[in-house]
């Protein structure tokens, strides 16, 4: 990665988008700038978290495959729409469901990203974020972060690196840019450089934010509790190239999602595949469409700021 930008970074120029002069704000932003990671508490109420959790269950059940959150025997691929990395949903126009937009436009979610970037002009979706809906104890699933690893990103990738073998490993010919599968020896490399692997035990309503260069993964639940989160990322619209904004807007109009980088790496992703064939239950629009406000149109790059 290139060094920090001096002046305004050019769109998609690969320079650090977060310029930080080391000044302290006395809040979660200090953690973010020091560790590449922070937890913002109580971004939504526990009641709102419960509402979003129920909407996720309702959405999973809307496919009619017999998924029951209270019956573990139904927690299988056959009873659920197609996910990736063991339970992350992207397809089926899910990214544009009404409840998904409601979460993105929660006032404190918006306010948090505004504070982080110092502006309120986001393009939707290099910070990654996760809004948490369920309590996380030590046995529950949760976000694992290699604390401090974002600062070693350039050093780590300045050497030739080979990804580990994994079902979700990107095909050799494609450059996903936003996904790298680490090996155990890489974990050790970061630990030898003073980083520490931590599990974030979040409460419902907490928003976790991490610099995209941070090594991270989701640990699966080992206890009884189902994990529910929504991924939310926002970056300033001015970091995006005109053609990327146009592509983003056209994908929105087709109810298609992009990647987890809001301002670049915008590309169309294919339909969900079940055993190698397009899932017959694929959807071309959300089950419940959002009320498309001017704010949503701005975030989706359809309407200029
Ligand atoms: O679910 C999580 O805690 C984070 C997952 C994630 O961002 C990843 O696997 O790349
Ligand atoms: Fe990730």
Structure, explained:
By secondary structure, the chain is of the alpha+beta class. It has a single domain (28-299), classed as Jelly Rolls (Sandwich), CATH 2.60.120. It contains eight helices and eleven strands. The strands form four sheets. A four-stranded antiparallel beta sheet has the order 1-6-3-8. Strands 5-4-7 form a three-stranded antiparallel beta sheet, covered by helices on one side. The chain has a two-stranded antiparallel sheet with strand order 2-9. A hairpin with a 2-residue loop joins β10 (273-274) and β11. It is globular. It starts with 27 loop residues before the first helix and ends in a 6-residue tail after the last helix. Residues 1-9 have low confidence and may be disordered. 2-oxoglutaric acid (AKG) is lined by residues 85, 128, 130, 143, 216-218, 229.
